[in-house]
From TrEMBL:
Top-level taxonomic group: Bacteria
Family statement: Belongs to the pyridoxal phosphate-binding protein YggS/PROSC family.
Lineage: Bacteria, Bacteria division CSSED10-310
PROSITE patterns reported for this sequence: UPF0001
Domain Alanine racemase N-terminal: start-end pairs: 23-228
Protein name in the entry: Pyridoxal phosphate homeostasis protein
Keyword terms of this UniProt record: Pyridoxal phosphate
N6-(pyridoxal phosphate)lysine modifications at: 39
Keyword Protein biosynthesis: no
Keyword Transferase listed: no
Function recorded in the entry: Pyridoxal 5'-phosphate (PLP)-binding protein, which is involved in PLP homeostasis.
InterPro entries, sorted: Ala_racemase_N, PLP-binding_barrel, PyrdxlP_homeostasis
Amino acid sequence: MNDLNLIGQNFKQIRQKIDLTARKVGRLADDIEIVVVTKTVDIEAMKIVIKAGAKHLGENKVQDAVKKQARLDEEVNWHFIGHLQTNKVKHVIGKFQLIHSVDSIRLAQKIEQEAEKRGIIQKILLEVNVSGETSKYGFVPADLMPACEQISSLKHVRLEGLMTMAPFTDDRAVIRSCFQSLASLRTTINGQSIAGIQMPTLSMGMTNDYLIAVEQGATLVRIGSAIFHG
Ligand SMILES: *Cc1c(COP(=O)(O)O)cnc(C)c1O
């Protein structure tokens, strides 16, 4: 890990770059939140980034995340961004404001069950495998609309949007087109007026591609390395 002093500075610089890019494409900077991905760092580093203004933290492993939550007193929004197994759902419900990585109907149904038990409504995003790589989790675009229809009937789950990860490539055009596809899937689904579904959120963009994501309409960018190891 880098000098701890750099963390706050990195966070603020990234915030500025996002704001500039947003303005350049005619968006409001306020419409984009940074989810600081803290999966590789300890509590000390997390406290520093919170002090620098971070309001959203993202973790990808249930056990680690829950331990960190118990040790942090600061008020933050927690985001679950990792692959979630159905047998871990009970540990996640109500502890994360948003689960980004719902990748099957079965998982959404399990979330419904556990949220109902606790009497809460859990906000979720559906993960989309836009590029169709077989190594990736997520709904393929063709399955997304029927999935949204099924999930719209779950009373303790609120579907707020879509999430994706761009393919591993240096080709900016390929990354851009992936983000563009996710944005247009959201537009299409919002236009269908499926009962109860209006999705404001697009979670896309990481350290290597977050500015492209902002240009293409991201409302949440998930950034780790550029803040903690940049
Ligand atoms: C680790 C991770 C990130 C952050 O990646 P960086 O390249 O370190 O910014 C974002 N999203 C998910 C799902 C991740 O697992």
